[in-house]
Amino acid sequence: MYVLGISAYYHDAAACLIKDGEIISAAQEERFTRKKHDSAFPANAIAYCLTHARIVPEQVDHIVFYDKPYLKFHRLIETYLAYAPRGFESFVKAIPIWLKDKLFQRAAIIKALKGLWGSGCDWDQRLLFSEHHLSHAASAFFPSPFERAAVLTMDGVGEWTTTSLALGEGANLTVTKEIHFPHSLGLLYSAMTYYTGFKVNSGEYKVMGLAPYGQPKYVKLIKDHLIDIKDDGSFALDMSYFNYCTGLTMTNEKFDALFGGPPRTQEAELTQREMDLAASIQVVTEDVVIKLARNIAKTTGEKNLCLAGGVALNCVANGKLLRENIFDNIWIQPAAGDAGGALGAALAAYHLMLKGPRHVTPSRDAMKGSYLGPEFSSTDVAERLAQSGAVFSMHTDDEITELTAQALADGKAVGWHCGRMEFGPRALGARSIIADPRSASMQKTLNLKVKYRESFRPFAPSVLREDVSQWFEMNVDSPYMLLVADIVKDKRRVMTAQEESLFGIDKLNVPRSDIPAVTHVDYSARIQTVHSGTNPRYHQLLKRFKALTGCPVLVNTSFNVRGEPIVSSPEDAFRCFMGTELDVLVVGQAFLRKEDQSQSLLSDYKLQYELD
Amino acid sequence: MTSCVRKFLSSVALGLLFFVVLTPLGFIARLFGRDSLGLKPRATSSYWIERKSSNEAETTVFNRQY
């Protein structure tokens, strides 16, 4: 039995196909349309899922949308009722969109399916709707390696729910408690993201990256005024400081007055104040997550915790939660944001409605390393590259490993396009830019010559799973780059007082460990453990790099430039390679050197995408 | 829906709907203590809301948009 999950129309559109409960393919629409966070109906992602499974549309037994549009509309109307006559500006913007599209989501989806698949089937009969947080909870529990677990979901908002607790056992999953809009940890974080001058829905990552530069001096102010946190971790916001219910901004003048000034504009310089605000909101978030987890452990008695929802992408908070040892095991859905809702919706319908059985493999999750996207055969790669005008040589896997490890050890920046594309926001060694983390200048070089940004965030390390505890203060799997831990003490370099007093990026550029390119100013790193079972080629490469250099760690950053979705096809990879100062490109079994390429194909790439 | 109808909706109908229907309704509801967003301070030890277990078949639940 095939079930197709879809998420669309709000943030990241995506599709996921499961066969008898097994996740066989999943991808985000942005990778195909090359439009970041594309929220349009995921026609390309759906087409890919079916092609990969080699099935025709009629074989799809159910199509499951990831949330319930009517409940969302109800929330919208209740919000206007609660605030009117305030909110007219937002009403005028929102209501026509609802009347035109969103109220008729069923019809819109059917129409889109007919456009894609024809009218050969009564798609209406097969279309189902899951609830937003049930989709998140299902994406966190069903693929987890646990027979039973408590499931905590936290995000901005779904229909009404912003936080939920569910209990999972076998093929069952029941949501037991919720916190409702407008009281939202995700939206509180987004409000601070907005106030510190970053883009809501994508800049949250930057706030988290900025936090280590700051002192959490606004924690008390936030807790006294913005959020009331109960002993069990449940919370309510004082909405008189926020504008997101009725207005077009996140915060209001009262919020400005509380923090002593207007929001930073996007172009304005980052100051210590933004860093302190970031550190403060990060501390508050961690406090809430840890309190929630403690109470959940106490009241449910569960030993395992599963997480999903956008807040679960806060890997710093996840790392703190792990170190609290409240649960024996924690598993986090890699596509924790709305894209993962597609996966959860399909799994929820399969297990809960269709009563499909669930098979758990202890200590191995069902995400297949999140390598669920398209891959390209050797012949296909060779053809596509040749058509793009690339000069390349084809090799065996072993030769590719050797050539690449050598290039990395020589300090080259490498584009690495191998195997199936990752599902979720992170590049995990299938569509990655990789480099030597030991180099003191690599961080700067990659940012300026490849990613075209100046970043106060260091890159993330990929490390052999078997070596993780020798380099980082952590000894669990973190295959999805969702846990942050510190570099071990004997690999650190102590800063002089003068170096400590440096500000911002200057501070980051001082090497503070044996692997400076992946070490943040507080010695933390966002770790990806690499496993031979899920990504043997990347694992092999790390092993060879270690043999050459003694270092089982590589810099891993997503294969794209600032503002661009991660590359998907070999053509995308070649275009990005030619548009940036990457030295080497590997596409499957093809090996490309920049100096061999035709100069005429070099392009100025960075201006094609807007700032993220 | 034509763009002309949309224009009409956005100017007159939306204004009427908001100020003549929603605003008084909301005002009366608030007068009677309705607080569906939990905007007023609440004397409670927890902000969790228990989810009522439903007796409905999952098929029914998954088939509808609410």
Give the structure's gist in a few sentences:
Chain A is α/β, with parallel strands linked by helices and 612 residues long. Chain A is built from 22 helices and 21 strands.
Question: How would you describe the overall organization of this protein?
Answer:
The complex is a heterodimer of chains A (612) and B (66). In chain A, 37% of the residues lie in helices and 18% in strands. Chain A has 22 helices and 21 strands. A nine-stranded mixed sheet of chain A has the order 13-21-20-14-15-19-16-18-17, sandwiched between helices. A five-stranded mixed sheet of chain A has the order 3-2-1-4-5. A five-stranded mixed sheet of chain A has the order 8-7-6-11-12, sandwiched between helices. Chain A starts with a strand and ends in a 19-residue tail after the last strand. Chain B is mostly helical. Helices cover 53% and strands 3% of the residues of chain B. Chain B has helices at 3-31, 58-63; one strand spanning 49-50. Chain B starts with a helix and ends with a helix. Chains A and B meet through helix 3, helix 4, strand 8 and helix 14 of A and helix 1, strand 1 and helix 2 of B.
